[in-house]
Specification:
With about 220 residues, the chain is an alpha+beta fold. It has ten helices and eight strands. Helix content is about 45%, strand content about 20%. A five-stranded mixed sheet has the order 6-5-4-7-8. The chain is globular. Pfam families: HxlR.
Length: about 220
Protein backbone atom coordinates (compact mmCIF):
# COMPACT_ATOMS: atom_id res chain seq x y z
CA UNK A 1 0.00 0.00 0.00
CA UNK A 2 1.22 3.48 -0.78
CA UNK A 3 1.86 5.73 2.18
CA UNK A 4 -0.27 8.79 2.79
CA UNK A 5 3.03 10.54 3.57
CA UNK A 6 1.50 12.55 6.40
CA UNK A 7 3.04 13.04 9.83
CA UNK A 8 -0.23 12.17 11.55
CA UNK A 9 -1.00 9.22 13.82
CA UNK A 10 -4.25 8.43 11.97
CA UNK A 11 -2.48 8.49 8.60
CA UNK A 12 0.35 6.33 9.96
CA UNK A 13 -2.18 3.80 11.24
CA UNK A 14 -3.93 3.71 7.88
CA UNK A 15 -0.58 3.17 6.17
CA UNK A 16 -0.56 -0.21 7.97
CA UNK A 17 -4.21 -1.24 8.20
CA UNK A 18 -6.08 0.92 5.72
CA UNK A 19 -5.64 -1.35 2.73
CA UNK A 20 -8.53 -3.57 1.65
CA UNK A 21 -8.67 -6.96 3.44
CA UNK A 22 -6.10 -6.12 6.14
CA UNK A 23 -8.55 -5.68 9.02
CA UNK A 24 -10.56 -8.67 7.83
CA UNK A 25 -7.42 -10.80 8.04
CA UNK A 26 -7.01 -9.44 11.57
CA UNK A 27 -10.65 -10.39 12.23
CA UNK A 28 -10.05 -14.01 11.22
CA UNK A 29 -6.88 -14.29 13.31
CA UNK A 30 -8.63 -12.76 16.32
CA UNK A 31 -11.45 -15.26 15.91
CA UNK A 32 -9.51 -18.48 15.37
CA UNK A 33 -5.97 -17.72 16.50
CA UNK A 34 -3.09 -19.31 14.55
CA UNK A 35 -4.44 -20.27 11.13
CA UNK A 36 -3.23 -21.96 7.98
CA UNK A 37 -3.27 -20.08 4.70
CA UNK A 38 -6.19 -22.25 3.55
CA UNK A 39 -8.13 -21.41 6.72
CA UNK A 40 -7.68 -17.70 6.10
CA UNK A 41 -8.73 -18.09 2.47
CA UNK A 42 -11.87 -19.93 3.59
CA UNK A 43 -12.81 -17.10 5.94
CA UNK A 44 -12.21 -14.38 3.34
CA UNK A 45 -14.54 -15.20 0.44
CA UNK A 46 -13.75 -13.04 -2.55
CA UNK A 47 -10.04 -12.52 -1.96
CA UNK A 48 -7.68 -13.73 -4.69
CA UNK A 49 -5.02 -16.13 -3.45
CA UNK A 50 -2.17 -13.94 -4.71
CA UNK A 51 -3.68 -10.89 -3.00
CA UNK A 52 -3.93 -12.75 0.31
CA UNK A 53 -0.26 -13.70 0.03
CA UNK A 54 0.61 -10.08 -0.74
CA UNK A 55 -1.36 -8.77 2.24
CA UNK A 56 0.19 -11.29 4.64
CA UNK A 57 3.66 -10.37 3.45
CA UNK A 58 2.96 -6.66 3.99
CA UNK A 59 1.44 -7.32 7.42
CA UNK A 60 4.53 -9.28 8.43
CA UNK A 61 6.71 -6.39 7.29
CA UNK A 62 4.60 -4.03 9.43
CA UNK A 63 4.96 -6.27 12.48
CA UNK A 64 1.27 -7.22 12.66
CA UNK A 65 1.53 -10.89 11.70
CA UNK A 66 4.14 -13.61 12.03
CA UNK A 67 4.31 -17.16 10.75
CA UNK A 68 5.72 -20.42 12.06
CA UNK A 69 5.80 -24.04 11.00
CA UNK A 70 3.21 -26.00 12.96
CA UNK A 71 4.04 -29.51 14.21
CA UNK A 72 2.03 -32.60 13.27
CA UNK A 73 -0.84 -33.21 12.74
CA UNK A 74 -1.18 -29.74 11.16
CA UNK A 75 2.29 -29.89 9.65
CA UNK A 76 2.09 -26.66 7.68
CA UNK A 77 2.78 -22.95 8.03
CA UNK A 78 0.41 -21.05 10.28
CA UNK A 79 -0.06 -17.32 10.65
CA UNK A 80 -0.78 -15.53 13.90
CA UNK A 81 -1.03 -12.00 15.21
CA UNK A 82 1.95 -10.46 16.93
CA UNK A 83 1.43 -8.55 20.16
CA UNK A 84 1.15 -5.38 18.09
CA UNK A 85 -1.37 -7.10 15.84
CA UNK A 86 -3.45 -8.21 18.82
CA UNK A 87 -3.60 -4.59 19.93
CA UNK A 88 -5.94 -4.10 16.97
CA UNK A 89 -8.66 -6.00 18.85
CA UNK A 90 -9.89 -2.73 20.35
CA UNK A 91 -9.97 -1.19 16.86
CA UNK A 92 -12.01 -4.10 15.49
CA UNK A 93 -14.32 -3.92 18.53
CA UNK A 94 -14.90 -0.20 18.00
CA UNK A 95 -15.62 -0.71 14.29
CA UNK A 96 -18.00 -3.56 15.11
CA UNK A 97 -19.95 -1.44 17.58
CA UNK A 98 -19.97 1.56 15.26
CA UNK A 99 -21.54 -0.53 12.48
CA UNK A 100 -24.25 -2.18 14.61
CA UNK A 101 -27.02 0.20 13.43
CA UNK A 102 -26.48 -1.11 9.89
CA UNK A 103 -26.82 -4.78 10.84
CA UNK A 104 -30.56 -5.30 11.61
CA UNK A 105 -31.43 -4.83 7.93
CA UNK A 106 -29.75 -8.18 7.29
CA UNK A 107 -27.32 -9.38 4.62
CA UNK A 108 -27.41 -7.73 1.22
CA UNK A 109 -28.12 -10.08 -1.72
CA UNK A 110 -24.44 -10.62 -2.54
CA UNK A 111 -23.23 -10.82 1.07
CA UNK A 112 -21.52 -13.96 2.34
CA UNK A 113 -22.43 -15.04 5.87
CA UNK A 114 -20.12 -17.17 8.01
CA UNK A 115 -20.88 -18.20 11.60
CA UNK A 116 -17.54 -17.07 13.04
CA UNK A 117 -18.38 -13.49 12.10
CA UNK A 118 -21.50 -13.73 14.25
CA UNK A 119 -19.59 -15.51 17.02
CA UNK A 120 -17.05 -12.70 16.98
CA UNK A 121 -19.81 -10.35 18.14
CA UNK A 122 -20.06 -12.41 21.32
CA UNK A 123 -16.31 -12.34 21.85
CA UNK A 124 -15.94 -8.62 21.24
CA UNK A 125 -19.05 -7.49 23.11
CA UNK A 126 -19.69 -9.98 25.90
CA UNK A 127 -16.48 -11.74 26.97
CA UNK A 128 -15.20 -8.94 29.20
CA UNK A 129 -18.26 -9.28 31.45
CA UNK A 130 -17.96 -13.01 32.15
CA UNK A 131 -17.23 -13.61 35.84
CA UNK A 132 -13.49 -13.94 36.56
CA UNK A 133 -12.41 -17.58 36.39
CA UNK A 134 -15.62 -18.67 34.64
CA UNK A 135 -16.26 -19.61 31.02
CA UNK A 136 -19.43 -19.49 28.94
CA UNK A 137 -19.46 -21.62 25.79
CA UNK A 138 -21.91 -20.70 23.03
CA UNK A 139 -22.76 -22.93 20.09
CA UNK A 140 -23.71 -20.76 17.12
CA UNK A 141 -25.44 -22.45 14.21
CA UNK A 142 -26.65 -20.16 11.45
CA UNK A 143 -27.12 -22.91 8.87
CA UNK A 144 -23.51 -23.44 7.81
CA UNK A 145 -20.88 -25.32 9.81
CA UNK A 146 -21.55 -24.44 13.48
CA UNK A 147 -18.87 -22.81 15.61
CA UNK A 148 -18.27 -22.46 19.31
CA UNK A 149 -17.43 -19.22 21.05
CA UNK A 150 -15.63 -19.69 24.37
CA UNK A 151 -16.05 -16.53 26.41
CA UNK A 152 -13.82 -15.71 29.37
CA UNK A 153 -13.19 -12.52 31.28
CA UNK A 154 -9.65 -12.34 29.92
CA UNK A 155 -10.48 -13.10 26.29
CA UNK A 156 -12.30 -15.40 23.91
CA UNK A 157 -11.73 -18.13 21.37
CA UNK A 158 -13.72 -19.55 18.47
CA UNK A 159 -13.43 -23.04 17.04
CA UNK A 160 -15.13 -25.19 14.43
CA UNK A 161 -15.03 -28.39 16.49
CA UNK A 162 -18.22 -30.40 16.79
CA UNK A 163 -19.53 -32.38 19.73
CA UNK A 164 -21.17 -31.60 23.04
CA UNK A 165 -20.02 -29.18 25.67
CA UNK A 166 -21.76 -25.86 25.08
CA UNK A 167 -23.62 -24.00 27.81
CA UNK A 168 -26.03 -22.32 25.40
CA UNK A 169 -26.91 -23.20 21.79
CA UNK A 170 -28.24 -20.59 19.37
CA UNK A 171 -29.72 -21.92 16.14
CA UNK A 172 -31.33 -19.79 13.48
CA UNK A 173 -30.94 -16.79 11.23
CA UNK A 174 -27.69 -14.84 11.55
CA UNK A 175 -29.59 -11.57 11.99
CA UNK A 176 -31.44 -12.96 15.01
CA UNK A 177 -28.30 -14.42 16.59
CA UNK A 178 -26.42 -11.16 16.06
CA UNK A 179 -29.33 -9.11 17.37
CA UNK A 180 -29.42 -11.17 20.56
CA UNK A 181 -25.66 -11.10 21.15
CA UNK A 182 -25.51 -7.32 20.75
CA UNK A 183 -28.56 -6.58 22.89
CA UNK A 184 -30.67 -5.32 19.99
CA UNK A 185 -33.09 -8.19 20.67
CA UNK A 186 -34.12 -9.76 23.96
CA UNK A 187 -34.28 -13.53 24.37
CA UNK A 188 -38.07 -13.30 24.20
CA UNK A 189 -38.03 -11.21 21.02
CA UNK A 190 -35.46 -13.44 19.33
CA UNK A 191 -37.37 -16.64 20.10
CA UNK A 192 -40.65 -15.11 18.93
CA UNK A 193 -38.94 -14.30 15.62
CA UNK A 194 -37.77 -17.90 15.21
CA UNK A 195 -34.42 -18.27 17.00
CA UNK A 196 -34.00 -21.57 18.85
CA UNK A 197 -32.19 -21.18 22.17
CA UNK A 198 -31.35 -24.14 24.39
CA UNK A 199 -29.23 -24.65 27.48
CA UNK A 200 -28.54 -22.24 30.32
CA UNK A 201 -30.40 -19.32 28.81
CA UNK A 202 -30.37 -17.48 32.14
CA UNK A 203 -26.56 -17.32 32.05
CA UNK A 204 -26.61 -15.71 28.62
CA UNK A 205 -29.38 -13.34 29.68
CA UNK A 206 -27.40 -12.25 32.74
CA UNK A 207 -24.26 -11.72 30.65
CA UNK A 208 -26.09 -9.58 28.08
CA UNK A 209 -27.71 -7.56 30.87
CA UNK A 210 -24.35 -7.00 32.58
CA UNK A 211 -22.82 -5.87 29.29
CA UNK A 212 -25.65 -3.43 28.62
CA UNK A 213 -25.42 -2.07 32.16
CA UNK A 214 -21.69 -1.52 31.75
CA UNK A 215 -22.21 0.28 28.45
CA UNK A 216 -24.63 2.76 30.01
CA UNK A 217 -22.80 3.25 33.32
Amino acid sequence: MKSYQQYCSVARALDSVGDRWVLLIVRELLAFGPSRYSDLKRGLPGIATNLLAERLKAMEADGLVEHREAPAPIGSRVYQLTERGRDLEDVVRALSRWSLPAMPSGPRPADAVQPQWIALLAGLNLAGNVAPGAELVLLIDTGDAPVRARLRNDGFGIDRLSGDGEDVALRGDAVLVGGLLTGLLSVEQATELGLTITGHVDQLNDLIAATQAGATA
